[in-house]
Design a protein that fits this description.
The protein is mainly α. Helices cover about 70% and strands about 0% of the residues. The two termini are about 30 Å apart. About 25% of the residues are buried.
Length: about 110
């Protein structure tokens, strides 16, 4: 019988692509994760992490939009740095987990793509 692994370890190539997804998300926002999500539909691990990074990019853009709107009441000046620091930390954690070949789930991520 064929045994199906629930969470197989991604190949070295997939692991490198996932690493590039998180690095690209850190520097270029949603564009790298969207491109890889649309192109690499055949690899489950890459698609899963591309969706996670894309969802994080959307969540971050919403956080920045709320911060910009709330700058008129001066609380946005506090929200924008918090969103930027969270974006930096969570993308670095995504890179670290990609280098260990572990799937990564963000704690505050809006799951818009499932």
């Amino acid at each position: 019988m064929n045994e199906i692994e629930i969470n197989p370890t991604p190949s070295h190539e997939s692991q490198n692509i996932i690493l590039l997804i998180w690095l690209g998300t850190l520097f270029f926002g949603f564009i790298p994760s969207l491109i890889i999500y649309l192109v690499k539909q055949d690899d489950a691990a890459v698609t899963d992490q591309a969706k996670e990074a894309l969802n994080w990019s959307i969540t971050t853009m919403l956080g920045y939009a709320v911060g910009w709107v709330l700058m008129f009441v001066l609380i946005g000046f506090l929200i924008l740095p918090v969103v930027a620091i969270c974006h930096l930390i969570f993308c670095i954690l995504g890179v670290v987990n990609a280098s260990k070949a572990q799937p990564y789930r963000l704690p505050f991520n809006l799951r818009l793509l499932k």
